[in-house]
Amino acid sequence: MTMLPQTTAKKLGLVIDLDTCVGCHACATSCKQWNDAGHSAPLTDTDPYGAAPDGVWFNRVHSYEVQTAHGSKTVNFPKSCLHCDNAPCVTVCPTGASFKRVEDGIVLVDADKCIGCKLCSWACPYGAREYDATDGVMKKCTLCVDRIYNENLDAAARVPACVAACPTGARSFGDLGDPASGVSALVRARGGYDLMPEQGCAPVNQYLPPRAVTPLVQQPLSRHAGGIESALLRWIDRVLS
Amino acid sequence: MNPAYSIIFFTTAAGAGYGLLTMLALYALAGDPAANGREALLPLGLAGVLVSAGLLASTLHLGHPERAWRALSQWRSSWLSREGVLAIACYGPALVWAWRLWREAPIGPVVPAFTAVLGLATVYATSQIYASLKSVDAWHLRLVPANYLLLALASGSVLWQALRVWAGVATAVDALPVATLMLAAGVGKWRYWRTLSRLAPTSTLATATGLGTLGTVSSLAWPHTEQNYLLKEMGFVVARRHADKLRRIALLCACILPPLLALGGSVSGGWPASLIMGLAVALLALGLVLERWLFFAEARHSVSVFYGR
Questions:
Q1: Which of B155, B165, B152 is CA-nearest to residue B259?
Q2: pTM of this prediction?
Q3: What DSSP state is assigned to residue B254?
Q4: How far apart are CA A89 and CA A63, in angstroms?
Q5: Residue B219 domain-assigned?
Q6: Closest by Cβ to B81, choosing from A75, A94, A135
Q7: At CA A17, angle to CA A13 and CA A23, rounded to 5?
Q8: Where is B34: in which H helix or E strand?
Q9: Which residues pair with A138 in a beta bridge?
Q10: Are B53 and B78 contacting, i.e. CB atoms less than 8 angstroms apart?
Q11: Mutation target vs A (from B62, B78, B85, B233; most A CBs, 10 A cutoff)
Q12: What per-residue confidence (pLDDT) applies to A228?
C-alpha cells in the first residue's frame, strides 16, 4: 500500500553528528557487510576488482569543505535513507512494493512486488535508493530491521550495523517521535536539523551541526612575559642566534 | 536524468497514437465520411499499434516486466499506476469503436469521445509522473503537462493528415488544425525552455548538507571513485553543452517543418503529396525524439547537488 500512514507509532531513525564523524567509512562498509546477507541481500557488486567497480550501497560518506570566517573546515557527511514522514518514494510506487511501516515508520521495499521501474529513486531528492540491476529490484536502507528486533542478538547489539560500527559515536539510533528519547534530547541539545527541508519530505533522520570552533588567536609575545624561566630561554635564544 | 530509449519511444509513440485517436474522434464527431467508414480502421489501427508498441517498450526498462500487472494497483497515490489503468481502460471503447467500424454499425458520439478522453487522460498521467517530482526542478512545472498534451495532439494531427493525404481525401483546410496545434505545441515548448533558463535550483549544497549556515560549502571528496547508480541514472549531464542547438533542431523538425509540409501535401496531389507527407512524418519523429531526449537529459536531479554538481 503506497498511501502513507497518517501517523506512525514510533519514528525510528538516526541522528548523525557531523562534529564527531571522522569520515572513516566504517558505517558504510559495515552496512554493506550486514545487508549483503540480510533482508535485501545480496547487495550486488559488478566488476568489483576491475577498472570500473560499481555496486549497491545503502550508506555513502561524502566529504565537504566549508569556508568559514575562520578558515576552511572539512566536514564528513554520511548519507543514507532518512525514513521520511512524507516519503515521496512511497507514494509514487505503482505496485505497493514501497511502504512505510505504521508501527515504527521504517520505509521498506517488498522485493517480491517491486517491478524495478526506478521511479522511487527519481522521487527521492536525497538519492537514498539504489537499483540492483542484477536482481532487477530497488534496494534501500532498512534501518537494519533484521537487527533491531532480532532476539538472537544481545540487546546491546540490536542497533543498525552502522551505529554499532561507528568508532566515534557519531551515529545514534532511537525513536525520534518520542520527546523523552535519548535521540530527541540530543537533537534538542545540539540543534539537529533536516536535510533539504525545502523538499518537504519531513525526514526522520536528523543531522547535528559541527560545534562552533574557537578561533586560534596568536598572542603577540611580550619581551617581559613569562617570568624568570622565559627570560632565561630568551637569553639562550639570543646567545645561540 | 538518464534518457532511457524505451521511455523516449513510449512517450513519443504513445503520445502520437493518442493524438491520432483524438483527431479521428474529432473528425468522426464532425461527421466526416472518411472518419466514419470502414477506412477509419486504418488510423484507428495505426493509433493502436503506436500505443501498444509504446506500452510494450515501456515495460522493457523494468527490472521485472513479468510483474508489470502489479503497477495497476496503486492508482490512489501513484501517477505511474494511474497511467497504466487509464491506458488499459482506453482499449475498451477503442475496441468497441473498431468493432462498430468493421460491422459498419452506427458509431454515435459517445464511443469516440470516451476513447479520446481516456487517451488524453493517459498522456496527462504520463506527464504528471514527471511533473509531480519535486526532486527534478525542470519537471516540477505546470508547463510539463501542457507540453505533453499539445505535442501528443499536434503529432497525432500530422499523422492524421498524412493518412488523409495518402487516402486522397485531404484538403487545404485539413492543414489548418495541424498548423494551429503545432504552433501551440511549439510555443509551449519554447516557453518551457525559457522557463528553464530562469529556473533557480530548489535545493543547493547549502540546504542539502545544512552547512550553509557555517559558510560556503563545496564538495571535497565523493563517497566513491567510480560511477554508481545515482550518477548514471540521475546525474546525466551530456546534453547541456549542445542544448541550444538541439532545441532549435527539435523545434524545426517537430513543430515548424511538418505543418508546412502538411500544407504542401494537402494542396499538391498524387505521389509528390505522399512523398511530402512521408518526409513530414520522418522529420516529426526525429524532432519528437530529440525533444523528449532533451526533456530527460537536461533535467537535473537534486541528488547531483550532493556531488557538488
A1: B155
A2: 0.93
A3: I
A4: 26
A5: no
A6: A94
A7: 110
A8: helix B33-36
A9: A131
A10: no
A11: B78
A12: 79
Which of A63, A96, A124 has its CB closest to that of B73? A96
Residue of A nearest to B234 (CA): A122
Which set of grid coordinates corresponds to residue B57?
517498450
Spell out, as residue ranges, where chain A has pLDDT lower than 70: 1, 218-226
pLDDT in tens, A33-87: 999 998 888 999 999 999 999 999 999 999 999 999 888 999 999 999 999 999 9
| Selected residues 216-235 of chain A with any CB under 8 Å from a CB in chain B | none
Please check whether residue B250 lies inside any domain of the structure.
yes
- Taking the Cβ of residue A210 and every Cβ of chain B, the question of whether any pair is shorter than 8 Å is answered with yes
Q: pLDDT tens for residues B213-271?
A: 999 999 999 999 999 999 999 987 666 778 889 999 999 999 999 999 999 988 887 88
Rounded to the nearest angstrom, the minimum Cα separation between A163 and chain B is 18
Largest interatomic CA distance in chain A: 84
CATH number, position B180: 1.20.1630.10
Whole-angstrom distance, CA of residue B223 vs CA of residue B211:
18
Q: Which residue has the cell 525520534?
A: A176
Asked if the structure places residue B202 within a domain, the reply is: yes
Residue B218 located in a structural domain: no
- Give the gap in angstroms from C-alpha B127 to the nearest C-alpha of chain A: 13
Residues B214, A52: C-beta atoms closer than 8 Å: no
- Percent over 70 (pLDDT), chain B: 99
A77, β-bridge pairs: A62
What is the pLDDT, as a whole number, of residue A221?
63
Residue with cell 529556473: B199
* 8 A C-beta contact, residue A147 and residue A160: yes
Give me the phi and psi of A80, to 5 degrees please.
Answer: -145, -175
**C-beta of residue B23 within 8 angstroms of C-beta of residue B157:** yes
C-alpha B252/C-alpha B111 separation (Å) is 36
The whole-chain average pLDDT of chain B stands at: 95
Domain that holds residue B21: 5-211+227-306
How many structural domains is chain B composed of? 1
Cβ separation A193–B223 shorter than 8 A: no
Q: Is the minimum CB–CB distance between A125 and chain B shorter than 8 Å? A: yes
B202 near B137, Cβ under 8 Å?
Answer: yes
Do A14 and A205 form a contact (C-beta atoms < 8 A)? Answer: yes
**Which among A56, A64, A187 is positioned nearest to A127, based on CA atoms?**
A56
In angstroms, the separation between the Cα of residue B90 and the nearest Cα of chain A is: 19
Q: How many CB pairs under 8 A join A and B?
A: 199
Residues forming beta bridges with residue A74, ordered by sequence position: A65
Class of domain A12-208: alpha beta
Whether the ω angle into residue A42 lies within 30 degrees of 0, i.e. cis, is yes
H or E element, residue A145: helix A145-148
Instruction: Tell me the mean pLDDT in the region B122-132.
Output: 98
